[in-house]
Predict the structure.
Amino acid sequence: MKIAVFGCGYTGLTTAVGLAEMGNLVLGIDTDAAKLAALKRGRCPFFEPGLDKLIKRNLARKRLSFSSDAERSILDSDVIICAVATPRGRRNRADLRAVLKVAGDFGRFMAGGTDAYKKNQKLFINKSTVPVGTSEKIRQVIEKSFLSATKRKEFIPNFSVISNPEFLREGTALDDFMNPDRVVFGLEQASSHSSSKTKIEIMLSKIFRYDDSVPIIYTSLRNAEIIKYASNAFLATRISFANELADYCEKVGADITEVAYAMGFDPRIGHNYLQSGAGFGGSCLPKDLHALIAHGKKAGLNLRLLKAVKHINDRRPDRILEVLRNELLKIRGKKIAVWGLSFKPNTDDLRDAPSIPIIRALLKNGAKVHVFDPAAMNKFRELFQTKVNFGTSATSILKDADCLLILTDWREFGTPDFAKIKKALRNPLIVDGRNCLSPAEVQKHGFKYLGIGRRRA
Ligand SMILES: NC(=O)c1ccc[n+]([C@@H]2O[C@H](COP(=O)([O-])OP(=O)(O)OC[C@H]3O[C@@H](n4cnc5c(N)ncnc54)[C@H](O)[C@@H]3O)[C@@H](O)[C@H]2O)c1
C-alpha cells in the first residue's frame, strides 16, 4: 500500500518516518517549500532526537520521499494520513481549515486521472487533533468535493474515514510512535469486537505494523476524537494540581517535590505529570485544553474543572515573576540570565512556552535579559530579535547577572559547574522554575536557591 502523509511537522514527519521504518512506501506532503527542501536533503527541519538519521536511511532505501504535489499523491496512494496543524482558532475552538482543506483535496483529486478509485478502497486517516464530530464533517467535505469535481449527482467512491489520534510527545516522538502505549482507531462502522478482523482492521494492521503487545483500541469516530482531548486535559489537570499544591506547600513550609515523589508510588497515581514550576506549554496541552472548554461551551456545558486547570496554569508566569520580585525587590535594570526557552527539554518548540510570557514581563519591567537554550535559540530569535541577548553557551550569559533563572529542565542544566556559575554571577541567586536542582546541593555551593513550592532556607 502506498501512503501519503499530509503535513511534515512534528506529528506528520514522525508518522511518515515511522511508517517507512516499518516497511511501508511513504510520501510526505507539505506546502512549506523550505521544509521540503531540507527534507529532500535528508535534514529534519526541526529539533527532534533520532529523526535525522531515519529520514536519511529511508530516503536511501527509497521508502520515503517528499513532495508538494497533493493531486499526484492522492491519485497514487491507497492511504492518506492527515497530520496538519489544528491551532487555536476563533473563540479558542480548534481551527480546522487545514484539515478540511486536505479533505477537500482528497475528494477533488480522487475523482481525476484514472478510474482506480472505483475499484480500490481508499483510507482517509486523520491524525490531527480535532473536536468531536470532525470526522463526520471530513466525510461530508470529501463527498461534496468529489461530487462538485465530477459534476455528478451521486456515486460516492469507496473510501473510509478513520480517526487515529496521535499521542507522541515531542522530544521522544519517534520512540513514542514506534512503541506506543496504545493505538486508537475510530471507525465509521462499529468494530465487530470479535476475533475476526474487518477488512479495514486488516488494512490498518498492514500499515501500522505493531507487535501484538501493543493495545489496539477500535472504537467509534466520536470516542476516538474525545480520547485525545480527554488524555491531554487529564495530563494538564495533573500539572495544575501539582502547581496549586506547590503554592500551598510553600506557604506552610513543605516541599512539593517530596510530596509529589511520595504520592507517585501509589499505583493509582504514578509519578508522571506531577512536576510543579512554570506550568505546562507546548503545541498541545494548552490549545487542546482551551479547545475542549470551548467546544464544551458550544455543547451547552460549563467545564468548570478544566477552566480551573487553565486558570492555574495561566497564573504560573506571574508566580515566577513574584518570586523574582520578592527577592530582587525591583526588576528594573537587573540582569537576568535565563536557561531554557523551549516548553520542555529535547525540543525546539516554543509554542505556548512559559518562557515567552515570563521574558516579555521581565522586559516590560525593565530587566536586561540574556538567554541560552540548547535547541530553541533560532526560533526564539525570530520572536524577540534584539530585545534579548543571545548567549553561545549556558555559562556565556552569566557574567554579572543578578539572577540565574531556569525555565526548561534540559538535562545539561541539572548538573552545572556551580563554581563557574558562582564566579560569574554578581549575585549568587538561582531561581529554579522547573525544580530541577537539589536545593541542598545548590546551597552547599553558596547560592541562595528559590524553587517553586519548596521550603525556603
Ligand atoms: N506536536 C505534537 O507533539 C503533537 C502530538 C500529538 C498530536 N498533535 C497534533 O497533530 C497535529 C499536527 O501538529 P504538529 O505539531 O505536527 O504541527 P506542525 O505545525 O508542526 O506541522 C504541520 C505541518 O502541516 C503543513 N501543512 C499545512 N497545510 C498543509 C496542507 N494543506 N497540505 C500539506 N501540508 C500542510 C505545515 O506546513 C506544517 O509543516 C495537530 O492537530 C496537533 O494537535 C501534535
The CA atoms of residues 168 and 175 lie 8 Å apart. The chain has two domains: 2-220, 315-457.
